[in-house]
Amino acid sequence: MLVNVCLLTPSTMFYCCTGIGHMVGAGIYVLIGTVAKEMAGPAIILSFMLAGAASMLAALCYAEFGTRIPKAGSAYVYTYVSVGEFWAFVIGWNIILEHMIGAASVARAWSGFFDSMFDNVIRNTTISVLGELHETLFGKYPDVFAFFVCLLHACILGVGVKTSSYMNSFLTLVNLGVMAVIVVAGYYYGNSDNWSSDGGFMPYGTTGIIAGAATCFYAYVGFDSIATSGEEAKDPAYSIPVATIIAMSVVCTGYVLVSGALTFLVPYWSIVPDAAFPAAFAGLDLNWIKYLVSVGALCGMTTTLFGSLYSLPRCIYAMADDGLVFKFLAKVNKKTQIPIINLAISAFLCALIALFFDLEKLVEFMSIGTLLAYTIVSASVIILRYRPTNRGLVRDSSSLLELPTSQADSFEMDMGGRLKPSYKFLEPFFGEFEPGYIVCVSIGWFTSSTVVLCVYIQYWFNIQHVSWIDGIVLTALGTDLILCQFLIEAHEQNSTELPFMVPHVPLIPSLSIVCNIVLMTNLNLLTWIRFFIWMVIGLLIYFLYGMHHSKENDVTSYSVLLSSSEAGKTPWGAINKSRKRVKTEDDRKPIIDNEELADNGYYH
């Protein structure tokens, strides 16, 4: 087993609170009411389970990368290492979108929930002074309060990670306590008839559950805030995967219990989407619970907003440090040891988005970039597992000459990316390719086939009127997916050993890819159009600036944030330039001398 949960380090506890606080916020207090009333009904429980399963699969992949590459940037860095700079920029650009939209949407929800406690006096005053926005693209009115809420949270983060983390941890604990009150009160005062009347437990059918899962996925966005902070963890190889798994398990369980309590408490058709829990308890004359839930909602959304604004500048920092976006965004303040300019600009942009766009438009636009990032990270796990290592021998080749002959015989050449002995009959077809190449092609083809299959089922397949064409298409695509998995399984994994590794590769990462693509096909066409516009802007930046300032080929100037072990020598956030190694005569000698091997009895 990887961990003993009882032995949680302070670093692990901090990242657990960061991940839980980032996930448990606007999702539980804003999305549950809308999904339960308009999409899934009481079956919202199944929607959260489906979305949680997809998120957990992606979280496992993130956890492995967190131990493999403890560097700021999350999926951006992972993709940079595994599939190259261009795709890394695409993912990094979408991670920026995820956190910007996430921060803006939570700020807007925070403002609306706070305003509802005082009979919408802030909204009414704003409209009377500034008027309404009559463009359909924007919200109904400029939310000035949300604008300043976003800036205030950024200022708190600006004083440093350690100071703001105390507030984040406290608010997370308060929020979890309020969730416990909701669950106990909901099931105590609820009625089981609410799960069986007016359409039953699944009033919208399976389609509603899947559509609800696509929306509920927004509620789980935030676990990657743990992976983005690998350099600040004292023991990233331990704390990152442990915190990820624990945070995901706690949040998924909480969502299922809370959403079930709401639909158990009141009929799904009577839910008030904008303030589901306060309205439900107020309808039963439980006003003390109503105000308690209101306080918990503000605490939850506060931690979520902290999480988005915490991760956003770190992803931008990693991209700027690699030269893909403007270099001044990588400057670190000497006093606070965080990228102040980066944080200020990103927070101001988030505040502008919160000022003009309402929550509904923001949430629809958020999922697509996140799902794409999770898909590529899952594919990258497979690519890295089957990529040959740089060393010639497995395990520790440096100690080979010191081992007895009987133990030295157990060492063999690293076979990563090569065909397994039991699949040698494929050698005439694939033996001429470089190790790992067939695996890369197979996972790319697997992803493309999954996209075609999901789009076909979503828009052309009708289960009530199955034709012979449907049978041919589904059989061909299904066979294609199985063949891709067969080809990947036919190859050896490399000898790299990590503190945490995703089990059952390539099955689990492949399932993650399928789940993410299924959810992506449930997003509407307008979301895809907006996503296309965002990508055009990003690609212009990449081709006009990033390509000319990239450090991809400059291995002597690649910089990273200092790890905790180096923090005692120089300030956190200082740039650590790797120096060019001076060549010596020993470089011309072979790594393992054949004569030495013979003298030690290795050949016999």
TrEMBL record:
<feature type="transmembrane region" description="Helical">
    <location>
        <begin position="437"/>
        <end position="461"/>
    </location>
</feature>
<feature type="transmembrane region" description="Helical">
    <location>
        <begin position="201"/>
        <end position="221"/>
    </location>
</feature>
<dbReference type="InterPro" id="IPR002293">
    <property type="entry name" value="AA/rel_permease1"/>
</dbReference>
<feature type="transmembrane region" description="Helical">
    <location>
        <begin position="75"/>
        <end position="96"/>
    </location>
</feature>
<feature type="transmembrane region" description="Helical">
    <location>
        <begin position="242"/>
        <end position="268"/>
    </location>
</feature>
<dbReference type="Pfam" id="PF13906">
    <property type="entry name" value="AA_permease_C"/>
</dbReference>
<feature type="transmembrane region" description="Helical">
    <location>
        <begin position="170"/>
        <end position="189"/>
    </location>
</feature>
<feature type="transmembrane region" description="Helical">
    <location>
        <begin position="340"/>
        <end position="359"/>
    </location>
</feature>
<keyword id="KW-0813">Transport</keyword>
<dbReference type="GO" id="GO:0015171">
    <property type="term" value="F:amino acid transmembrane transporter activity"/>
</dbReference>
<keyword id="KW-0472">Membrane</keyword>
<dbReference type="InterPro" id="IPR029485">
    <property type="entry name" value="CAT_C"/>
</dbReference>
<keyword id="KW-1133">Transmembrane helix</keyword>
<keyword id="KW-0812">Transmembrane</keyword>
<feature type="transmembrane region" description="Helical">
    <location>
        <begin position="500"/>
        <end position="519"/>
    </location>
</feature>
<feature type="transmembrane region" description="Helical">
    <location>
        <begin position="44"/>
        <end position="63"/>
    </location>
</feature>
<feature type="transmembrane region" description="Helical">
    <location>
        <begin position="12"/>
        <end position="32"/>
    </location>
</feature>
<dbReference type="GO" id="GO:0005886">
    <property type="term" value="C:plasma membrane"/>
</dbReference>
<feature type="transmembrane region" description="Helical">
    <location>
        <begin position="144"/>
        <end position="161"/>
    </location>
</feature>
<dbReference type="Pfam" id="PF13520">
    <property type="entry name" value="AA_permease_2"/>
</dbReference>
<feature type="domain" description="Cationic amino acid transporter C-terminal">
    <location>
        <begin position="500"/>
        <end position="550"/>
    </location>
</feature>
<protein>
    <recommendedName>
        <fullName>Cationic amino acid transporter C-terminal domain-containing protein</fullName>
    </recommendedName>
</protein>
<feature type="transmembrane region" description="Helical">
    <location>
        <begin position="365"/>
        <end position="386"/>
    </location>
</feature>
<feature type="transmembrane region" description="Helical">
    <location>
        <begin position="288"/>
        <end position="310"/>
    </location>
</feature>
<feature type="transmembrane region" description="Helical">
    <location>
        <begin position="525"/>
        <end position="545"/>
    </location>
</feature>
